[in-house]
Each structure stands twice: as structure tokens, then as C-alpha cells.
């Protein structure tokens, strides 16, 4: 019993220290600045890119609310109406209600509802079409930060993965506007996914760039709005990246140039020093993505 009490006390201490704060963690440097982590300053225009209505609440609620605390102007681009069960119209209305809870006004929400992007895990969305659609939206709205899924899609849904593939293509080909950063929500294994707030110590120690944590006030306020889907998903019993109380994100960075071509890639190395990229292998960020 004494051991259990000590463990619970330690967990509570971690929660108290981290609750309600934005942490930007680097094991080699201690705390990284928001700029180093890919987070632009107050007044920036951030775009959340999702595949279906309810993604914003099930996976990205802590991120959206965290960006709001940083005084970002957050907008949302949803690539489908979520009509897999022929409930598209209902889900579009739920999305607008959910965004209201998260602080995104209806004028900042765009829902794409056409045959090119069906809500269907068995259909592979065209990467070039997704990328071109997203790029137009980024350019027209002068977006500074794009937030979306990582290569694992959090839940593994093919539509989620398609968004990451398109964003990665835009980023690696240098097509995003200058100064536009990309953050991707880290996928985790099933065990960590359902540990909720108890997973916080692992998230703090794992390679990451940004960690958003919901405050108790935000959870309580959302629960008062039970007419919205976001309310149910903000409850810590529902699963997101590693529990709906917080979300960890990684900055999308350029691949490490081959050591055989160091002389030809000095500019890239200067922008991304080895100590910054080493902890990600040669991948794109996200847990276990080091291919």
C-alpha cells in the first residue's frame, strides 16, 4: 500500500507541474523556444487540417485550445463531411458546434464535401489533389502554421494518413509559403493511447517539440456544453493521441542530407544542426517514424 501511495503521489506531482502549461521539450537543450519548435508568435494564423468531423475533438482538442491560449487565430479545413454512415449533414452541424466549443468561429471553418475525398478507409485519396487543395487554402488565407496527423494517422485511418502524405510532399518539395511551419500529432501505441493523463510522464520524456495540456477549467467548461460532440471527446475517458487531456506534436523538418553530400548541403545543415535532427533519425518526427 505504501508503494502504491508513493506512485500515486509522484503521478499527482507530475500532473500538478504540467497541468495548464505549454511545454516545449528537448532532452539535449532543456527547454526549446517556441520558434525553434515551429510555433509562430501571437496573432499567427494556424490551420488545423482534418479528414472527418469529430477529428478535431477526438484528437486535436488540447492543441486547438493551446493555440488559442497563445493567441493564435485558428481556422479549420475538413476534407470530408463524414458521410460514411449517411450522416454527413448531421456531422457537419456537429462540427460547427464542436468548433464553437473550441473557439473556432463558423467563418473560419471550411468543409469539403465532394466525391474526390469520400469518408471511406478503403479509398486512397489522391495525394496531389489533396496537396493542391490544401496549398490553395494556405496561400489564400496566409497561414503561418499547419497542424495535422503524423505518418501513423493517430488511429491508422487511411484518410488521416493521406493528409500527412500530402502535407509532407508540400513541405519536402518546398511548396509551402516561406515561414509556414508544420506540426504533426504523434501517434502512440494502444496501451499509451488509453492511459489518458497517466501517460503524461512518458509524453514529457519522449522526443517531441510541443506538448499542449488541457486546464481543468477548459475541461469543466466543455462539459457544460453537452450538446456538442467536442464535449464528450474532451472527457479524459475518451482517446486521442495519448488521452484527450493533452497532445504531443512534432515539427516537420527536412530530411538529413546524405553524409556523402555534406558539402552540397551546408545550408540545410546550418538550418537543422545535427543535435536537432539526431533524435528523429532520418524521419519526419512522430513516435517511431525514423525510416
TrEMBL record:
SUPFAM superfamilies: LmbE-like. One of its GO terms (biological process) is GPI anchor biosynthetic process. Transmembrane segments: none annotated. Its EC number is 3.5.1.89. GO terms for cellular component: endoplasmic reticulum; membrane. Gene3D superfamilies: LmbE-like (3.40.50.10320). This is N-acetylglucosaminylphosphatidylinositol deacetylase.
